[in-house]
Specification:
about 170 residues; mainly alpha; elongated
């Protein structure tokens, strides 16, 4: 069996993705596995980043979904409220998933629900004082954690990466 742990010619030590690519190059030399170098690493990086971010949410008694809802409410500005459909759009989840998140946050005393003044069938979700205090602390810790994670790159590397990701995402989402 071929040793796939050798340098891949890039000057970088082989990582998990490089080893998988080497295996595929051996097994399917007719297929260009180059894109896997970027996509595979982004996928693995996203998984690792999610784990690292979730640690901070957990320290505040929140899951990723609850954190997102509280952030969307806090970003709304005074009086820190939005309709559930608007929250779903701001957090990119279905309205059904949003209802479950709001239920959990309401039971915890972090948000309230009331009828909309414009439409008695509609509802408005608002941060409570404890909800605002919690998300302010959690967001501060979250930004500190993101700074720590980004600190693994040189400032010029982080800036270049942000530029590339912005262009790529913009093209993908258009």
């Amino acid at each position: 069996m071929e040793d796939t742990s050798k340098d891949d010619g890039s000057g970088r030590p082989p990582d998990h993705v490089a080893r998988i690519q080497a295996d595929w190059r051996r097994e399917r030399p007719d297929v260009d596995v180059g894109p896997q170098g970027v996509i595979g690493r982004l996928h693995r990086l996203a998984d690792r980043l999610t784990e690292e971010l979730a640690l901070v949410y957990g320290r505040h008694g929140l899951g990723e979904g609850e954190f997102d809802v509280l952030c969307a409410l806090r970003r709304a500005g005074e009086p820190y409220e939005r309709a559930p459909g608007e929250l779903a759009a701001h957090t990119m989840v279905t309205t059904g998933a949003m209802t479950k998140r709001i239920d959990r946050l309401e039971r915890a005393g972090l948000v309230t629900r009331r009828r909309s003044g414009d439409d008695q069938r509609g509802r408005i979700v608002a941060l409570t004082r404890p909800g605002r205090q919690l998300i302010d602390r959690a967001f501060t810790d979250h930004m500190r954690n993101e700074r720590r994670l980004l600190g693994l790159l040189e400032p010029t590397e982080a800036e270049a990466l942000e530029g590339l990701l912005t262009v790529w995402l913009g093209r993908l989402e258009s």
